[in-house]
Amino acid sequence: MLSFILEIGTEEVPARFLPGLEKELVERFSAALDKEGVPHGPLTAKATPRRAVLQAELAAGSEEREELVTGPPVKVAYDAQGAFTKAAEGFAKTQGVALDALFTQKTDKGEYLAARKKTGGVGTQEILAAICPEIITALPFPKRMHWAADPFTYARPLRWVLALLDHVCVSFTVGRVTSGNQTHGHRVHGPGPFTVAHAKDYAGLLRDSCQVTVDGAERQEAVVTGGDALAKAAGGRVLWKDSLLQEVAGLTEHPVPLLGGFDPSFLEIPREVLLTSMESHQKSFGLEGADGKLLPHFLTVLNISPPDEALVRKGWERVLRARLEDARFFWKSDLAAKADDWLASLDSVIFLAPLGSMGDKTRRLEKLCARLAEVCGCISPEEAARAGRLSKADLVSGMVGEFDTLQGVMGGIYARKRGEPESVALALAEQYLPAGPETPVPASRGGALLSLADKADTLAGCFGLGMIPTGAMDPYALRRAALGIARIILEQNLELDVRELFRGALELYGERKWKLAPEDALEKLMEFFTLRLKNLFMGQGTPTLLVEAAIGSSARDARRAKARLDALAAFSATEAFAPAVLTFKRVANIVRKEEQERALAPEYSASLLQEDAEKALADALETIAPRFDTLWAEDKYEDLLTLLGELRPKVDAFFDGVMVMAEDKELRRNRLGLLKALEERFGRLADFTALQM
Q: How far apart are CA 240 and CA 221, in angstroms?
């Protein structure tokens, strides 16, 4: 096997591009090599801000293959005298074979001229020279750019390309850069250029002469190891944040941790503000002591080993001090402001132009939160209402104006400082949770109710205006809002009718000119929520058909829908599942087919029951009904599904011995009413028509 190294040198690429770049390099080269028939070992890709590197062990050439290729039909390939036509000659030329090598091949569609074409046997160097520029040119980035008059685009300008197969240079041109055997190192510690004699020499040369750590995991390890040592010497520990650690590793090729400090007087500022200022603006980490309190220190990461570390530290401290001075000013100014003044200012802050101001929104949330508290409990309606009214007040604060990621968090801090109940402060701090599928839901009941109300209000308003997400377009993150509602209900175990939540949210908008009538908007909103709930359940590994069946009966109560789904999944593992599904699916199909033409009432008359089988079914249904209602009230869905097994023999006997579609209209209506009564009760458990056996 031959060692291959490809290095794409650029100006600094944003850190967020690097993980995707590594993934694309591996996937695209692996696919291209497989297509060309080049045997290879595992491919690895690593990236720094200034280079993307692919390494692999490759065979010397592609495997030889023989491929059967069919050409024109025989009747077209030969003329009346049996000689080859121009169509046959063209086919042979295209496939690179002699005319006398062609033969007839029988297929399902008739006889065709065919040839055995040998492919492969091409040197790997030649293959790489062809696929490398194609792959580099096609690499996807969130943003691309071109420079000068060159039409070639990439994440950042290309500076060099190194391509070696063992000691041989793989020559090609991409953009205006021609590949070679030279690399460049760290801008200060090893700028180069350096000639790479053999692909296997690359790693050592990059480490020793170039002073570059190409592996992102190694850069992170260097930051953590060095940072922990510095923090321990200062009597604390680093507050590592994975996303920031990955980012700073993606900003450096030669990571050097540096510990700095700030005036302890700044510790009067809330912890959340201090950490946000360090992390967001300075790409630095905070430190805390053994008591869990912040220390007046920060850890940053340099991309250089400075000759005068003290001078560099002083510069970082000066910049952070200016940030913290601003934060302290906003903190004191906000504490001096009155909540009522902020609430009044919200009337000048637009929520969505057709939906009024943030002041209007908080007044709706005030009422909706109170209603939710009455339904769900665990927080007083008065406190829930207060949280709804104060929910957006911090948007006009100086601190949130400077640190917008702290909206809600600062609202909770200010509410606590002003003597609001703790439940109100917690609700304000948690109102924007969950912020995504991987983030937690509110831990407090007040936060859960405020988040539900906020998301329902936004969904109701947008759907009323006809702003329904389509395809990839979702500018107001309505999918995330609907998913958040589902997660909150499930994880907080709330007994809540989602349809009534949306109905209440729509009603609180009052009379206004909607694009969709409220009832139409409500129907579309429920369809939208139901789809999000299905996706949530399927994302947890539950089979699609079981999800469709469980939610098909109703998605209004997400908590009970999940309980029915779990019971159905357990039932599906038993031998009784398939027979029961087939039987009750037949019931549901008959009922639904009839209801397409006329409404059916779940009623029947005992006096019209003629056959023993229908009498037995009616008796069994009446016997089971009280047990069903008790188990339903207690949410014992697994026990309810066992009732299917008890009732199934009676239903099967009914179908075997009774003509449902009798010629007598009264008799037919009565039998359909019996099946409707059966379907209406057990149809609450699942939509059996969604299941396939």
A: 12
Q: How confident is the model at residue 299 (pLDDT cuts 50, 70, 90)?
A: very high
Q: Which amino acid is at 388?
A: G
Among 493, 529, 504, 489, CA closest to 370: 504
Helix axes 637-657, 665-682, angle to 10 degrees: 160
Write phi, then psi, for 239 (nearest 5 degrees).
Answer: -90, 80
For residue 64, pLDDT over 80 is answered with no
Residue 361, Cα to own-chain centre: how many angstroms? 28
- Whether the Cβ atoms of residue 266 and residue 331 lie closer than 8 Å to each other: no
Contact partners, residue 527, CB within 8 Å, separation at least 6: none
DSSP symbol at 193: -
Pairwise CA distance, residues 238 & 218, whole Å: 18
- Tell me the pTM: 0.81
In contact, 411 and 451? CB cutoff 8 Å: no
What is the C-alpha separation between 551 and 268, in angstroms, rounded?
51
pLDDT value at residue 8:
96
**3-state secondary structure at position 75:** helix
Q: How many CA atoms lie within 13 A of 463 on its CB side?
A: 28
Which amino acid is present at 691? Answer: L
Amino acid residing at 358: M
Residues 6+ apart with CB under 8 A from 551: 530, 533, 534, 537, 561, 565, 687
Return the pLDDT at 693.
64
